[in-house]
Design goal:
The protein is mainly beta. The protein has one helix and eight strands; from the N terminus they run H-E-E-E-E-E-E-E-E. The chain has a domain at 44-140: Sandwich (Immunoglobulin-like). The longest helix is centred in the N-terminal third of the chain and has 16 residues, at 4-19. The protein is globular and about 55 Å long. Pfam families: YscW.
Amino acid sequence: MLERRPMFVFAAATLLAATGACTAPTPVAAPATIGVDGQVVQRSRNALPPGTVVSVRLLDVSRADAPSVTLDEQQIRLEGAQLPKPFALKVAAERVDPRMSYAVAADARLDGKLLMISTTRHSVLTRGAPSSGVEVVLEPVARP
């Protein structure tokens, strides 16, 4: 009986090594991301009031008859500063399909009231559109 124990231990160790149970777990790679960066600017010379929040969104605008899908959003609190302000958005690489269309949109609000908005489509990521150095222009909203 004593002679079989070392053989059993050797067989068990060999089996564990063969199945990979004795090896360290393989680290899982973080999902790759794709970034879009640029700046939000305004053409008007009107100063934005303190407390203004600029929202910049990366959108999937592929479906013509459906609302766009927000893939990432960044909130920029101006705290008395003025535009231009840089932005950086990210999306998981597997969510970007080269056949689809993506755009960046922005707006500026004070206490939830819309002050400025981007009125031009700023295409990014696919179909030859840039992913860096994107300039999103905000236009004043008409007031009654």
